[in-house]
Amino acid sequence: MAAAKLIELRVNGRTHALAAPDGALLLDVLREMLGLTGTKQGCDGGECGACTVLIDGQPRLACLTLAAGVQGRAIETIESLAPQGRLSALQRAFHEKLGAQCGFCTPGMVMAAEALLRDKPQPSEADVREALAGNLCRCTGYVKIIEAVLGAAAETAGACAGAGKSGCACAAVAETSKEGA
After folding, report:
1. Do 12 and 75 meet the contact criterion of CB atoms below 8 Å apart?
2. Can you name the residues that pair with 66 across neighbouring β-strands?
3. Residue 15 bridge partners (DSSP)
4. What was the pLDDT predicted at 1?
5. What does residue 54 show for φ and ψ, rounded to 5 degrees?
6. Does domain 83-180 bear CATH number 1.10.150.120?
7. What is the DSSP string of the chain?
8. How far apart, in whole angstroms, are the C-alpha atoms of residue 67 and residue 61?
9. Rg of the chain over CA atoms, in angstroms?
10. Residues 26-72: pLDDT tens digits?
C-alpha cells in the first residue's frame, strides 16, 4: 500500500486537507475522498475528456493530474457551476438544446466549454469545436453540444448586438441548427 501524504487542495472555493496516497490522481481524490462524483472516470488514459476540470481556469484532465501537483491552485469541478442547485447558463443550455444524451460526457464537455466562454465570451463555431476537440461523445454528432455552447454564449451576452450578422453567436446557432435539421 502506498504511503499517504498530507495535501491541501482548494476545490470549488473550499480548502480541503487530505491524507492522499502518494501518486493519487486528482480524479480519484475528487470522486473517492471528496465525494464530487460529477467528474467522470472514462478512459483512464487522457483520451476522452470525461474527467475535465478547471485548474486556475484552464481545462485539465483529472485522470492524468497528480493531486499533489495542484496544491495551492484553484480547482473547479462541474459541481461549482450550480451554486445552491441553480444551473448555470451553460448547463441550462445543454439541457434545453438537448446537448446531453446519456450524460456521461456532459460534465467534461461543460467544463471545457466553461473555460472557452470565460476566455472568449462570444466564440465562433470553430472556436467551440476546437475547445471541445479533446472531449468525446459516443451518443451524438456534436451538433446539439455546439448549439448549446453557442446558445449559452448568446444568452449571457443578452440581446444580440450582432443582429444575426456573420460572426455573432446568434447567427452561428441559427446556422448550426439549419445544418442539423
Report:
1. yes
2. 25
3. 10
4. 59
5. -105, 130
6. yes
7. -PPEEEEEEEETTEEEEEEEETT-BHHHIIIIIS--TTS----SSSSS-TTEEEETTEEEEGGGSBGGGGTTSEEE-GGGGSGGGPPPHHHHHHHHTT--SSSSSHHHHHHHHHHHHHH-SS--HHHHHHHTTT---SS--SHHHHHHHHHHHHHHH-S-TTTT-TTSHHHHHHHHHHHH-
8. 11
9. 17
10. 999 999 999 999 999 999 899 999 999 999 999 999 999 999 999 99
Q: CATH 1.10.150.120 occupies which residues in the chain?
A: 83-180
Name the pLDDT band for 2 (thresholds 50, 70, 90).
Answer: confident
- Residue 155 and residue 158: Cα distance in Å, rounded? 5
Q: In terms of CATH, what superfamily is 4-81?
A: Beta-grasp domain (3.10.20.30)
In this structure, what are the phi and psi dihedrals at residue 96, rounded to the nearest 5 degrees? -70, -35
Domain span(s) for CATH 3.10.20.30 in the chain: 4-81
